[in-house]
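Running log. JK asked me to keep both predictions on one page so they can be read side by side. First protein, sequence followed by its tokens:
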Amino acid sequence: MEKRQDVVDMKDMVVPNNITPSSESSRSKSKLMSRFCVSTDDDPLILLNIGGTHMTTRRSTLMRIPNTVLALAFVSPWSENITCDNDGRLFFDYDPILFQYLLNQLRDWSSSRKVFDLPKDKFERERFRSLCIQLNFDLHLIDGIYRHEKFNKICGHIALDEKGFVARHIGSYRFAECRGTNVYSSGINRIALKLKHQAAEKYNTFIGIIWSGTPMQERSFESSTAYGWAGHKQVYLKGVQAPIQGYGGYDSDMCVHDTVDITLNCQLGLISLFNYRTRRIYEIEVDLKEGCPLPWQLHINLYGPGDRMKIINLS
């Protein structure tokens, strides 16, 4: 077979006398090309049929995250029984656009990544979440990772108990600020909180975020970088109550002893609040340019005497 004329054999290249081939350059090129020279015997190409759309990828890509449907498809006994189309392609009856979005992330997946990049559209995020659940991906890859957090900065009449996990209002005046230790600038981060109060049926404490560089103040929910939820259906955006009461469907359903999750999605500039008792979730889109830039901090403002907030570390 004749050698293709457009392929240059390195040994036939003429190197000027004043230039010595660099071994470091060769190593660099070898590293560059290594991912493109993997034998199909070592890492076979897998032909896919996703809802009628044909795709091709490496087996290692589908097995990137263990114990998922995609990984188990190559493990006995499922590998012998997995559904294939008439051409022998693995068949998965899913939206091909949504599956491609997942596949692209698996191609670039590394041990340093902790969560998926989620679609910006809320409806598409829910569809992507449903796809990942059906394929048995761990929920923390979609919903975020619980962070180890505690309170360490206060302004006003607050005492910190239980090594900083509990913030307690101890004065006779209303409003006092406390913040978490961590700063958040990437990923999807979850914090579980326990609301504690012995007297009121409804809870008026503010729960949200604030830019880490914002000065502390007792009425911190009025700071220009504050976003979050309070009592009486109040939602704060840039430190100002939203013009519509019950913004985003929020109905102040937090009561004494409720446990809630606050999720800080730095990827999309979103924060959400989930109430375990009512199973309701609320979401606020954060203006990262003119509102609350990254990095964020957990931001609590205790309303009055006896109010308490406890961080529950689930990580």
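And the second, directly underneath as requested:
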Amino acid sequence: MDERNFHCWAYRFYLLEQLTPTDPVELEKFYETELEFLRSTIGHNQSNYSAWHYRSKYLEKLFQANPSLRSTSLTKEWQLVQTAIYTDCTDQAAWFYLRWLLFNQLGVETISQDEHIQSLEQLDQLEPGNKWCMLTLCELWKAKNEKNQERIQYLEQLANHIDQDRAQFYRDQI
């Protein structure tokens, strides 16, 4: 079986919806078991975009069922995805998940300079010219209304040197 097969992941999601227990104690154990399975799947192959995507859908379901788990879960998710991008900063699957986590789950108002932005700026210093890091920083700086001049420089570098195939996309961001 191809572990990246979207149909298999969609069917798994469907089955788990059918099997979800109603007892709160069983439900918490049920969710933790599935999250552990996903953690190990991603640990086995961090480039498995399907597993990252499924994890995002599963977490949305988890937060809907149990909002009290949101804060601690998001902290763990940040640590997981940060490990992934520091392990292989060119893997776009982890970057898509990171951006989903930052902008769709944490929200701009809770993104912190110390916890979130600074770690990406450090990665940018370690891996200069990484388009995913640069683009994510540009999006964060724009959302936080910070470092506008540096953001414009990064977008120009992306358009003119690093990712010329998408040059117009980057220029539109300026």
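Observation for JK regarding the second prediction: The chain has a mean pLDDT of 92.
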